[in-house]
């Protein structure tokens, strides 16, 4: 997770606060929008805050989340009077995204982005192949022939093709999509995978379209939940190809529309490599490895499953993580017992030294395209789903995660 303050101090990169829309001088000449925003905020008079009020804004009919976006936009632009902001923002967004946006497939990431865009007033249609997910889309309110189509028909109708197929599916569906990528349209991704490793995926877009990305740093479910709570999930953004001169506008408009908390700049290759490293590392792979190693050592030394689980996982997720998220690890270190403090300070370095070579190996494997190839190869096998399910079943049935089921049931709120 990238902190905006770190970003500004470390390099001249950019973060766009929720609702930020392009300020032409800044975006064309400098990418450090966070720094600019901070300076503007310091110089500007207090900005009126619009309280969280889901539903359409009374003034403009524009739903709440863009009210908030517009509020930030106002902080940034300053020239626009608050009452004009929504209209101005809407105008910019409409200019950017044209008539129709197509959303390709409602998997995990898809529903969150599609519903947030729809609730934000965007003109969204969905392209989904027939099957269970199509039926679910109907149940979720997408109307066949009006807002829900097959993939081909949706691509034909749409001006921005939001390609949220699974990474393996993009390769097989690409020949279907490509003929509809006519001049002036945009192709949108939420992951740099297909483009970064297009020597392996075959996804080479025509030169006369925009190719853009907004990559939320979390699941579609979180994106939707946080949006409904009036919060936002951070996303990175990138423009790979700007054929129309409006690719940046489209990207930021979509970044706001899907419910991003703030947007930080990346490139397709940087997003793809950091994302694959993150999910294999501290977000999923490494954390499971670390938790299991500690759980096993405690169990091997006679601790009960309950004790091993509580000391390894439950305390982490229930007590520490919320504080860690709110205040940072430095705060955690400063606000625990002196015994915990001494031990954590002494042991952080041995853990770091043991783990860093593994992360370096992982990064090299990602950078070389090896991890992408493994993913492509395994996802393309006909028995992939069965094998994956067997691996997931083994994880689910492991002692540590079975203990988790019991411990969760014992939480007071579940009784
Ligand atoms: N999941 C996340 O947390 C997350 C976070 C950030 C970014 N992303 C990115 O968002 C994109 C979508 O990820 P996802 O996790 O939402 O993928 P997913 O859940 O696996 O979604 C798959 C979608 O692709 C469709 N699909 C699969 N194979 C197909 C085929 N051969 N032909 C046509 N449609 C096919 C599926 O339809 P059926 O249901 O009919 O199979 C489903 O709608 C990826 O680029 C991913 O990297 C995901």
Query: What proportion of the residues is helical, as a percent range?
Result: 55-70%
Euclidean distance between termini CA atoms: 35 Å
Give me the side-by-side strand order of the main sheet: 1-9-8-7-6-5-2-3-4
Bound heterogens, unique: NADP nicotinamide-adenine-dinucleotide phosphate
Structural class: alpha/beta
Number of strands: 9
Radius of gyration: 23 Å
What count of helical segments does DSSP give?
A: 21
Order of helical and strand elements: HEHHHHEHEHEHEHEHHEHEHEHHHHHHHH
The biggest sheet amounts to: 9 strands, mixed
Task: Estimate what percentage of residues fall within beta strands.
Answer: 5-15%
Low-confidence stretches: 1-88
Overall geometric form: globular
User: Kindly state the mean pLDDT as a whole number?
Assistant: 78
Topology:
Layout: H1 4-10, E1 15-17, H2 24-29, H3 33-43, H4 64-77, H5 82-97, E2 101-104, H6 109-119, E3 124-127, H7 132-139, E4 148-149, H8 151-157, E5 160-163, H9 167-177, E6 186-189, H10 193-196, H11 198-201, E7 210-216, H12 220-228, E8 233-241, H13 247-257, E9 260-265, H14 268-280, H15 285-300, H16 305-327, H17 329-334, H18 338-367, H19 370-380, H20 384-396, H21 399-410
Parallel strand pairs: 2-3, 2-5, 3-4, 5-6, 6-7, 8-9
Antiparallel strand pairs: 1-9, 7-8
Bound molecules: NADP nicotinamide-adenine-dinucleotide phosphate.
NADP nicotinamide-adenine-dinucleotide phosphate binds next to helix 6, helix 9 and strand 7.
Verbal overview:
This protein is an alpha/beta fold and 415 residues long. The chain has helices at residues 4-10, 24-29, 33-43, 64-77, 82-97, 109-119, 132-139, 151-157, 167-177, 193-196, 198-201, 220-228, 247-257, 268-280, 285-300, 305-327, 329-334, 338-367, 370-380, 384-396, 399-410, and strands at 15-17, 101-104, 124-127, 148-149, 160-163, 186-189, 210-216, 233-241, 260-265. The protein has a 9-stranded mixed β-sheet, sandwiched between helices. The relative contact order is 0.09. Bound molecules: NADP nicotinamide-adenine-dinucleotide phosphate. The site of NADP nicotinamide-adenine-dinucleotide phosphate has 23 residues, from helix 6, helix 9 and strand 7.
């Amino acid at each position: 997770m990238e902190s905006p303050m770190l970003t500004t101090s470390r390099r001249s990169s950019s973060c766009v606060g929720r609702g930020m829309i392009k300020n032409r001088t800044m975006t064309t000449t400098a990418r450090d929008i966070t720094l600019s925003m901070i300076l503007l905020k310091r110089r500007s008079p207090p900005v009126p805050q619009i309280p969280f009020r889901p539903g359409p804004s009374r003034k403009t009919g524009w739903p709440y989340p863009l009210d908030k976006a517009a509020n930030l936009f106002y902080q940034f632009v300053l020239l626009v009077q608050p009452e004009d902001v929504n209209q101005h923002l809407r105008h910019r967004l409409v200019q950017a995204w044209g008539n129709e946006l197509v959303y390709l497939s409602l998997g995990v990431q898809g529903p969150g982005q599609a519903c947030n865009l729809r609730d934000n007033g965007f003109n969204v249609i969905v392209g989904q192949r027939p099957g269970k997910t199509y039926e679910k889309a109907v149940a979720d309110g997408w109307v066949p022939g009006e807002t829900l189509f097959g993939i081909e028909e949706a691509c034909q109708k749409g001006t921005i093709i939001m390609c949220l197929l699974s990474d393996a599916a993009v390769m097989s569906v690409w020949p279907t999509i490509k003929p509809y990528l006519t001049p002036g349209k945009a192709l949108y991704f939420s992951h740099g995978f297909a483009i970064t490793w297009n020597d392996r995926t075959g996804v080479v877009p025509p030169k006369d379209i925009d190719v853009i990305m907004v990559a939320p740093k979390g699941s579609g479910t979180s994106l939707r939940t946080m949006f409904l709570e009036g919060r936002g999930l951070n996303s990175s953004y990138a423009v790979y190809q700007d054929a129309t001169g409006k690719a940046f506008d489209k990207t930021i408009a979509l970044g706001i529309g899907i419910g991003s908390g703030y947007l930080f700049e990346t490139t397709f290759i940087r997003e793809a490599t950091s994302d694959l490293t993150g999910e294999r590392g501290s977000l999923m792979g490494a954390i499971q490895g670390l938790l299991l190693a500690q759980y096993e050592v405690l169990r091997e030394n006679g601790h009960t499953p309950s004790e091993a689980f509580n000391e390894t996982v439950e305390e982490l997720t229930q007590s520490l993580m919320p504080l860690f998220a709110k205040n940072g690890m430095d705060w955690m270190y400063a606000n625990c017992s002196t015994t915990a403090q001494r031990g954590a300070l002494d042991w952080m370095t041995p853990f770091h030294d043991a783990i860093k070579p593994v992360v370096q190996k992982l990064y090299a494997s990602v950078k070389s395209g090896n991890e992408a190839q493994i993913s492509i190869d395994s996802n393309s096998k006909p028995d992939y789903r069965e094998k994956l399910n067997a691996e997931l079943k083994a994880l689910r049935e492991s002692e540590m995660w079975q203990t988790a089921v019991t411990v969760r049931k014992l939480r007071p709120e579940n009784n």
